[in-house]
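Researcher: Structure prediction, please.
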Amino acid sequence: MKSRHMGRELALSTLYALDFNGELVPGMTFGGFPTMSEEEQDQIDAETSLFARYLITGTLDHIEEIDSWISRYSINRPIEKIDCIDRNILRMSVFSLLYARDIHSNVIITEAVRLSQEYSREVNYKFINGILDSMRKEIDDHVENS
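Model: Predicted structure follows.
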């Protein structure tokens, strides 16, 4: 499980860097991890790297759909006004809720809250928890009926 959390951290730092630098483009081909040197990338175990790449690629492939879900539930805060780190925690988590059906939604939300507590402002984890928890039922219904 530790490698999954590390994979989420790596995916988050990559999505954040791409978004912050204005390089996050829907459906873009993902190369390496821009926040790490080649030496650091060589130190990552295969499972962590594979999971991070899965989250990044999946999020980028479905970014428009994911942003639409976030916009529907973040009524008082437009997506472009959500802090960059929180926006990308939400994106990665919504991708997981929609497409990583082998991961229980409670795990996805717990991990999102944990990442927010580690990397964001002190109270933003409540915002992330609220958005994802509200989405969970509709996404479960959406996926079951697809």
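Model: The chain is about 70% helix and 0% strand.
Researcher: Thanks, that helps.
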